[in-house]
Specification:
The protein has 11 helices and 17 strands. With 372 residues, the protein is α/β, with parallel strands linked by helices. Helix 5 crosses helix 6.
Length: 372
């Protein structure tokens, strides 16, 4: 049997662990694996060459500890999913025909797609064309689907952010500053919430909880009055200011991206609190570097499970983590509903009990928190 694998969208720690698990499990069954370069673009023919390679055990031996991806990736290109007026998703028929031709020519009996929401939707469209597809969920934002408790890459990102905040705290304490740390999270605040709790942040702002700036200002003032030297504010890039997203516009290419809310908050908080305020955008440091142990293990488990699904010929499915077990759902279910932070969840309530300010309520009387 010959099977394929590709990863698409943004990179994150743990992709190589998936590839290693997938290839190792395949070769133990006597199968061959073809890896496609640069996402779905690897399925398209190129003049004078090809965009794929045979992945053997030597090529993938112990790559689980490597960040990034040995196959390369892209979140642009020819496979942009189109949506019509009634919400129907589709791909360019010519591009789809070329991809099917490549898969047929190579004799692939299955294709595993590692990716986030957009990649999973593309995989679903390929499956609807009769192609044997397995989806493997990947995103540092942990928001791909409600069917999976975690996606690999998330825990590594939280580790990076938490460690960075620990470092920022020391300089904030030395200068008695407010430090605003902007982290990734376009639709969901999982990274901000987990890292904020882990690193003892004072304020955590996430897209799922609408905040009032005055509540944040009042909370900061009370903490300073109680004797606290430094204030740490963690904000997800997808939070809204006065109901609007904050974006960065590139005049050269007309590209508009999320970002800049840390800067905006910094310039609002300093005059409102009277405290020197600085900001830090952690950006792509959250995606880079070696995966943590959790993501290495989860990636390997996902890769091996994908091969088992192929062996059972359970196509048009996605691997997921539910509790301690790796299971499966249909790709339809995997892309049906993003996974958001529930404002009433135990995790959010725990954060509130610890005194974290979300900005949606007036701060509690902090006299009980005064420092000796």
């Amino acid at each position: 049997m010959i099977i394929g694998i590709l990863n698409s969208g943004g990179d994150c720690p743990g992709i190589n662990a998936v590839i290693e698990g997938y290839v190792t499990a395949a070769y133990s069954r006597g199968w061959r694996v073809i890896g496609f370069h640069d996402g779905f673009e690897g399925l398209l023919p190129v003049v004078g060459g090809r965009r794929y390679e045979v992945l053997n055990l030597l090529k993938t031996h112990k790559i689980r500890s490597l960040g990034g991806t040995i196959l390369g990736t892209t979140n642009t290109g020819n496979f942009n999913v189109q949506v019509n007026k009634v919400g129907r998703h589709s791909l360019d028929p010519q591009i789809l025909a070329k991809a099917k031709k490549t898969i047929t020519a190579l004799g692939l009996e299955a294709l595993a797609v590692i990716g986030g929401g957009g990649s999973a939707k593309t995989a679903k469209l390929l499956a609807e064309e009769g192609l044997p597809v397995i989806s493997i969920p990947k995103t540092i934002n942990n928001d791909l689907c409600s069917a999976s408790d975690y996606t690999f890459g998330f825990q590594s990102a939280v580790e990076v952010v938490s460690s960075s905040i620990d470092r920022i705290r020391t300089t904030a304490n030395a200068h008695q500053r407010v430090m605003v740390i902007e982290v990734m999270g376009d639709l969901s605040g999982w990274i901000a919430l987990h890292s904020g709790i882990a690193s003892s942040a004072d304020v955590v702002l996430i897209p799922e909880i609408e905040f009032d700036l005055q509540n944040v200002v009042d909370g900061i003032k009370e903490r300073k009055a109680a004797g606290q030297r430094e204030i740490i504010v963690v904000v997800a890039e997808g939070c809204r200011m006065n109901g609007e997203l904050v974006t960065v516009f590139n005049k050269d290419n007309g590209d508009e991206r999320l970002g800049g809310i840390g800067n905006r908050l910094c310039h609002l908080l300093e005059p409102a609190t009277g405290i020197e305020t600085r900001y830090c955008v952690l950006g792509h440091t959250q995606r880079g570097g070696s995966p943590c142990a959790f993501d290495r293990v989860l990636g390997l488990r996902f890769g091996v499970e994908a091969v088992k699904l192929i062996e059972r010929r359970e196509f048009s499915t996605s691997v997921v983590l539910k509790g301690p077990k790796v299971g499966t759902v249909s790709i339809d279910e995997a892309v049906a509903e993003p996974r958001f932070v529930n404002p009433q969840s135990h995790l959010v309530q725990t954060a509130r009990e610890l005194g974290i300010i979300f900005g949606d309520r007036r701060p509690q009387d902090l006299r009980r928190r005064q420092l000796d």
